[in-house]
């Protein structure tokens, strides 16, 4: 597989809850790069994440990972196929230590790129807190642990849902550096973000989701520099970026 070939390709994906359709024909591809999905609340971004990782069954379309369809597979089979998930809210075990969280997946990492030691190297703060329980960590430390846990799957694609939510700028800087490092290691990263500045820093390509469809694509800092486009696609602009889409 060459660098310009898609690791993940989504084709006309449709999904929803009962009779309510949320995703309405979503199509995009991700090669060896970071790609961000941005959009207002309620546009279907988290539903897209859940569908990609098998937590929600698609009602139509295809999800193709490295040339093989994975739509319709159970979440554990999706993970084994090569997609790791960093969910919104982190979903850690409050009573387990950092070490214990990583140890649950450590046996599968022998001889692979990502091991607990490699996670501690990427996030030195976790090494300092390895004996602390999940409930005792700060929000930033919890997010580092959620990312580190996903890395131990040694996946080809990592999906991150709102990774910068509620975090201080210094922690966002750590996550941005981590995403760039993963891409340098040949991992594709799909980031769903409300924080537009963080999304632009993490991913050179940004796809805008509106009412369950991808309506536009931007590169670099074009969207961040254009309040008119922010207003058109995100409903914000100018000083409003200091809030939800800062």
Automatic annotation (TrEMBL):
GO terms of biological process kind: L-amino acid transport
A GO MF label: branched-chain amino acid transmembrane transporter activity
Keyword list, A-Z: Amino-acid transport, ATP-binding, Nucleotide-binding, Transport
Domain ABC transporter: residue ranges: 8-236
Family per record: Belongs to the ABC transporter superfamily.
The protein's name: ABC transporter ATP-binding protein
Origin species: Jiangella asiatica
